[in-house]
Amino acid sequence: MYKKIGLIVFLSILVNILQQTIFSNIKIFAINMDIVLTFIICYSLIREDVECVMVALLCGLIRDSFFPGIFGLNTIVYLVTAYILCQIERKIYKDALLIPMLSAFVFTVLKGILYYAYLYTASIQFEFVSHFMYVVPIEAILNSIISIIVFRFVTKIDTIKFMQQEWKF
Questions:
Q1: Given this model, what pLDDT does residue 165 score?
Q2: Signal sequence: where (predicted)?
């Protein structure tokens, strides 16, 4: 069990480090892909409810520690994403690469909507129309493309023996 927890913590930290160091510098049409969101989506398509929510919470808290002005925004978005995917993951066929790609696209759009809702309720000025017309579609496409690699990585992690152990509370 400790190996499983250690691997989850390590992967959460690693994905956030990769996002902050490498993927924040890779810009396509001046837009970054969100490897952390993509990791949570792919992880939620494969693993159990409790584990997915824990990964989303940990990734969100780590990611939010880089943005102190709006602390909690990424955590909320990641938790909502993990929760919704955990509710529907039993009902979908996950082995096709189209599922993680489509999920990454849809949940990136949902992320854009949740960001706007949060910023609107916090009375922070935000140009919703231009963001939703130009940034969100490109980010959704980029996340869909990267989800192929991330999904294969998460699938390989899922085959490790200690990852198959049930949670004991």
A1: 63
A2: none
Given a contact cutoff of 8 angstroms between Cβ atoms, the answer to whether 136 and 25 are in contact is: no
Q: What is the CATH number of the domain that holds 85?
A: 1.10.1760
* 14 within some domain: yes
Residue 169 inside a domain? The answer is: no
- Cite the DSSP H helix spans in 35-97: 35-46, 49-64, 73-88
As given in the structure block, the two tokens for residue 74 are 């990424």
pTM of the model: 0.88
Query: Average pLDDT of 50-64?
Result: 89
Please give the residue range of the domain that contains residue 151. 2-163
Residue range 74-109, pLDDT digits in tens: 899 999 999 988 888 777 776 777 888 999 999 999
Is residue 54 situated within a structural domain?
yes
Please list, residue by residue across 91-124, b when 16 or more beta carbons sit within 10 angstroms of its beta carbon and e when fewer do: eeeeeeeebbbebbbbbbbbbbebbbebbeeeee
